Amino acid sequence: MPATSCRGGFSPAAAFVPKGGVPLPRPWYETIFDERYPDLFGPLERDPEEEVSQMVRLLLLSPGASLVDLGCGRGRHAIPLSLRGYRVTGVDLSEKMLGLARERANREGARVHWVREDMRTFVRPEAFDACLSLFTSFGYFDDEENQSVLVNVARSLKESGVFLLDLRNAQKGLSGEEDMEKTMTVPSGRLSMRVRFDRTTRRARAEHTLTRSDGIRISSAFDVRIYSEEELTNMLCRAGMRVTAVHGSLDGAPFTSGAERMVVIAQR
Fold this sequence. Notes:
By secondary structure, the protein is α/β, with parallel strands linked by helices. The protein has helices spanning 37-41, 48-59, 78-83, 95-108, 143-156, 171-174, 229-239, and strands spanning 5-6, 66-70, 87-92, 112-116, 128-133, 157-168, 180-186, 189-198, 203-212, 217-225, 242-247, 261-267.
């Protein structure tokens, strides 16, 4: 997402400049995952060890299963999964995030195959027992490209392989209920978050602004396509998978209109 501001020592990402033309802004998913990310989004992250335990139970993962974490970021889940004996591939577009992941994996002795690639092109035919898409790492693109991501997932899964898609439950946004504004105290200052749903485009735009204790402000914004359960079911079917369960959290709670998350389990 394009940054709404970038002060306090952080430099905006360079834009592509066509020959003799005006610089073209880079899409948000090429610029957001940088030095700002831990401060702007880290406070929303939950205990990865607990989430890994929940996923292992939810998917009934066999010891030593081959997994791919699509949009792995700095390895919050890929590393603990590796330390539990799973064969893990972590895929991300951000070299910054992958660099942090490699550093931590080296410190902790985790063996993860890190791949810098766009999820719209990443395919490893029938290589994985399970694919994970966590913390709303899906919906970045337009409908056609988002569908291509699911097709790639299906192609990369072994026969009867499973896909876990963890998304924010956007049912309230889709039904036209109020948008969200929230401010919270975090270790580095005050974090303000604002989410606006566009019922026409069915996309949500979120803006995060951190006012640090030293008075410096940093902010970012991102824009994702919000899908209903029915839409996702149809998209997964077209990709060659079938939905086997929908939960309201990674611990397997029922999916309701008030659930915080929408966790979709599909099988090839």
